[in-house]
Every structure is written in structure tokens, then in C-alpha cells.
């Protein structure tokens, strides 16, 4: 979402709050990865603090720049900036809790090696494909 806000603003100006927020997130991910590779117990506090500051200031600027909410796109960007601020603790938890993945690819690992997607998969049934949820009709002709 931050990327789409940055792409939209790219033609309008050189600097973009969403780009700064995205860059700060990427830098935090790098700090976490570097600490993991070095087997460090914690991330360097000053470096992490600087990235959090960049993230927060970018979101605050985005909130201010889109306060008018005069177009649907501006309302969407305003909502994004508000979420970045309101949910900061949740979004940045990966930087303080190693059990949390920095990305959102749906493959959160469990202790026994299976993924959440595997846990939520529907059991096979003789009259429907494994991906078809119960109660949904098959829209293919002849079915």
C-alpha cells in the first residue's frame, strides 16, 4: 500500500512521504536481517530509532498533506497515513520480536514446520476440489 501511494505521487513531486515511510521499513528489515545474521541479541538502538523517526515523520507529513481528503485518492492516502501511525506498534513489531516475520507473505511458521496456510486448508472431499469452499457452487458449464 505504501508503494502504491508513492507511485501515485511520483509524477507530482520529487520527495514523497510514502516513499520515505517505505524506505524506513526496508531499512528496519535490513537491520533485523543483519542482526539475525550476526547472531546479535538486539538491533542497534540508535539505528532503529532513526528509522522509526523517519517512518513516523513521513506518516505524520502524509496525514497533514492529505488532511483535505478532497479526492477519493487523497482519502485513501489519508487513511494509509492514519493506519501507519495508529498501528505503528503492530507494523513494527518485527523489529523487537524475532518470532514476527518482517514481510506479509502468509507463510508464518509454526514450531512443527507447517504454515498457517496449511493449517487452514480445507480437507479433500470426493465431490469438490480441495480449493473450493463449502457452500460455493461450481460455475463451470455442465456442473
Structure explained in plain terms:
It is globular and about 50 Å long. Helix content is 52%, strand content 0%. It is mainly α and 143 residues long. The protein has one domain (2-103). The longest helix has 21 residues, at 17-37. The chain is built from 6 helices and no strands.
Write the layout of secondary structure elements.
Elements: H1 2-10, H2 17-37, H3 45-65, H4 72-86, H5 88-91, H6 116-120
Helix pairs in contact: 1-2, 2-3, 3-4
- How confident is the prediction overall: mean pLDDT? 78
- Given as residue ranges, the uncertain stretches (5+ residues, pLDDT < 50) are 110-136
- What characterizes the major β-sheet? none
Count of runs of 4 or more consecutive helical residues? 6
Core attributes:
143 residues, mainly alpha, globular
What's the short version?
The chain has helices at residues 2-10, 17-37, 45-65, 72-86, 88-91, 116-120. It is an all-alpha fold and 143 residues long.
Amino acid at each position: 500500500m505504501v508503494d502504491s501511494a508513492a507511485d501515485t505521487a511520483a509524477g507530482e513531486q520529487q520527495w514523497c512521504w510514502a516513499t520515505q515511510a517505505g524506505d524506513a521499513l526496508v531499512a528496519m528489515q535490513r537491520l533485523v536481517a543483519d542482526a539475525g545474521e550476526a547472531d546479535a541479541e538486539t538491533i542497534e538502538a540508535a539505528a532503529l530509532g532513526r528509522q522509526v523517526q523517519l517512518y513516523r515523520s513521513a506518516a505524520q507529513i502524509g496525514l497533514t498533506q492529505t488532511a483535505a481528503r478532497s479526492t477519493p485518492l487523497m482519502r485513501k492516502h489519508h487513511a494509509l497515513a492514519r493506519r501507519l501511525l495508529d498501528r505503528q506498534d503492530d507494523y513494527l513489531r518485527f523489529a523487537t520480536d524475532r518470532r514476527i516475520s518482517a514481510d506479509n507473505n502468509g507463510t508464518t511458521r509454526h514450531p512443527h514446520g507447517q504454515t498457517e496456510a496449511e493449517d487452514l486448508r480445507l480437507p479433500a472431499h470426493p465431490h469438490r476440489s480441495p480449493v473450493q469452499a463449502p457452500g460455493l457452487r461450481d460455475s463451470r458449464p455442465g456442473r
